[in-house]
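Structure ticket #2291
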Amino acid sequence: MATASVLTPHDVQTTLNYFAPVDDEAPYRYIYLTPPAGKPEHNLGDDPRPVVVHDARGREDDFSLDVNGFQFVRHVSAEKEFVDEDAIKTGYYKEIEELLKNVTGAKRVTIFDHTIRRHAEKDGTVPRTVQRGPVERVHIDQTYDATIKRVRQILGDDADRLLQSRVRLINAWRPIGNPVFHKPLAVGDWRYLDEGDLVPVRYLYPDREGGTFSVRYNPAHRWWHLSQQTPEEVTLIKCYDSETDRARLTPHTAFHDQTSPSDAPHRQSIEIRALVFDEE
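Resolution: structure written out below.
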């Protein structure tokens, strides 16, 4: 996969934040919702662990959604700035729909949300309604059950029929404006994940309940990133697959790369989450 000029590929020794319990209650997080008096917004503790994040630069074609749970693809978008919500939801959504169909062979793609991250500090340091930063916690965007609920919520009368065939949830992650130097994205190889490492977290919204997975540390985990990923390179991250004989999901997180030049621009990125169906 050709790319713009980049530094020599390198692995990064860093620390990733895994899940640690802070009390006996099942993990939860309130989203756009004020918790009851005296109750914290979430009960997710951090378990920082040293890891090596290996560089996939020069080996991009070695990884695939069905084997590893993630895939690197080259895609030049007509959208560059990502400041116009209408343009994102019309033009850019259509681009990603076609990209996902081409990569996966799917017949139907339904995009249900996107997140733009421009804040230099980690997500949660400012209100979600103001600006988002990188998520510096190992996670998966949806639990298995939450994905099925999403299908039913979004597809309505078509849901039962579509759920009879293969269903995937894929996150399409792209840098904005410049290559990524600070807080790059690490993705975990499905083959080295034990599903017992997954910790369901209830997401409590004003009008519904969803769920994500946090992840317990396991020394077997193997991590990858694409050094200085450019806006013309997209990381596809599988968050759910109804088929059980292949990669079903991929843990991912932002991480600190101490080798990055201090004067390099802060990371900006957009992620698109889409339901991907084998049937129309």
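Closing remark: Residues 1-7 have pLDDT under 50 and may be disordered.
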